[in-house]
Amino acid sequence: MLNFTINDVKIVLRDIGEVIELFSLVLLIPVPLALYYGEGISAVEAYVTASVLGILTGLLLKRLFKNSGESRTVHAFTATTAVWILCPFIGALPYMFYLGSGPLDAYFESVSSMTTTGLTMLGFELPKSLIFWRSVEAWIGGAGIIVLALIGIFGFTKSARLSEAEGREERLRPNIIKSVRMVWLIYAFLTLLGVTLLLGTGMPVFKAVNMSMQGISTTGLAPAEDILLYPGSKLCLMFITLMGSFSFLVHYKYMKGRLGAYLRDVQVKLILILALLAIILTIPQFTKMHGKTGLEDAAFSAVNAITNGGFQAFDYAPLGSFVVIITAVLMIIGGSTGSTSGGIKALRLWIFLKSAYWKTKEFILPSKAYFPRKIEGHNINDEDMNVTFLLIILYLVFLLFGSLTLVSTMPVNGEQAFFEVASAQGNAGLTMGITGPTMPPAAKVMLCLNMIVGRLEIIPLLIAGGFLLKIRRRD
C-alpha cells in the first residue's frame, strides 16, 4: 500500500503557493475601476490588502518548501483540489474588507463566482468594482485557475499534470503551454465578441463587459432587469453561453478553417438536441404562464440550463414541477468537456448511452461477434466506460447528499432542494429563491461543497482525500 510522507505535503504546499501568488495579483485589477467610479480609499485598500495577503501567503509557501522535490500526478491532483478550496478564501477578502460581509457569505460568493455557478449571497446592489471583481473571478474560473497559473510559470511536466487534474485533458497544440495560451486567446476573442453583440442591444459598456464575461464563463450572475431591459439581449446571451459550453478544441478547429467543426462534434449536437427537446416539452407551460413570450422564455430557460449559463429572467416556482424537473436534469447534464460549463458533461452522457447500446448488442449478437466501440473515431474501452459510470454515480451521490442536507436544515420540499443542489453542483446558478443570506450555515457549506465538486468533477477530491489519509511520517 502506497503511503505519503510529510515531504509529499511540502511539495503540494509549494505548488499551491505558486498558484495563490499569481491569483492574488489579479485582485489588483478592480483598483482602477474603484478609482474611476469614486469609491474611495477604502475600496482601494480592500483590494490591495487582499492582494498583499495572498501574495505573501504564496511566497511564504514557496520559500518554505522550495527544495521539497519534483511533483507527481498525485501531488498535482491534491494541489488542484486545495487551490479550488483555498483561492476563494483570497477572493472573498474584498467582500469582507469592503462590504463588511461575514466570512461564510463572502466565501460562498467567491466560490460561486470562481466555480462559474452564479448563486449569490450578496445580491446585485453592489459597488461597481465588486460587481466587476465577481466577473473577473468567474472569467478566470471559467478557463481555470490552474490554466491561468500555467502561463509560463511551471515546467512542461508539472503543467500537464495540473491541467489534467483540473479536467483539461484536451490539447489544442502539441505543447501544453502553447495550448494554454491558445485557450486564453480564444476565450478573450469570444468575450470581446460577446461585448460587441451586447453593445448592439443598447446595453451600456460596463454592463456589456460584465454580462459577456459572465456569459462566456457560463456564470450568469446578473439581475433579471438587466436581461429584460434591452431588446435582443436574451438572444445574445443564449449565443454567448452556447459558445462557452462548447469545447475550446472545437473553437480551435473552427478558427483553423474547419468550418463544419461545430456540426460534426457529437457534444455540440447532443447539447443542441437536448435544448431543442426541452424547448418543445416546456413551451406549453411557458406559454400558459408567460403568454406571448412563452417561446422565447422556454428557449432562454433550456439554453441557460444545458449550458449552465445561469442567466435567470423569471421565477421557476410558478411554472410547475414538470418545467422544474426538466430544467434540473439539463443542469445536471451540462455542456461539453473542455468548456466552461459544469455538469456531468455531454460526452459522458453519450458514452453512457452508447455503452447501454453496445451492451444490448453484445446480448443479441453471437458471443464471438466483434463490432467497433468508437465515438468520433476514438476507441472506447471498458476502462473508459467504468470511469464514466463511476463519475456519474458519484455525481448523483453528492447530489442526493446535498438535497438531503437542504431538506433537513431548511423549510423546503424535495423538489426545491433537488433543483437548488442540481444548480449548485452543475455550476448553473438558476435558483428557486432558496439561496440567500438567511440560509443556515450547514446549507451554505453544503452548497459550497457541491459547487466545488461540480467544478472539479469529483475524482481530484477523492485522490486528495486518499492522499491526506495515507500521510505517514518518515521513519
Q: Any key phrases for this structure?
A:
68% helix; mainly alpha; 475 residues; two-stranded antiparallel sheet
Describe this structure in words.
The chain is mostly helical and 475 residues long. Helix content is 68%, strand content 1%. A two-stranded antiparallel sheet has the order 1-2. β1 and β2 form a beta hairpin. The chain is globular. About 3% of the residues have low confidence.
The pLDDT mean sits at 87
Number of strands: 2
Strand order of the largest sheet: 1-2
Computed structural class: mainly alpha
**Number of helical runs?**
22
Q: Uncertain segments of ≥5 residues (pLDDT<50)? A: 149-161
Order of helices and strands: HHHHHHHHHHHHHHHHHHEEHHHH
| Biggest β-sheet strands, sense, barrel | 2 strands, antiparallel
Shape: globular
Distance, first to last CA: 16 Å
Radius of gyration: 22 Å
* Percentage of residues in DSSP E strands: under 5%
Helix content: 55-70%
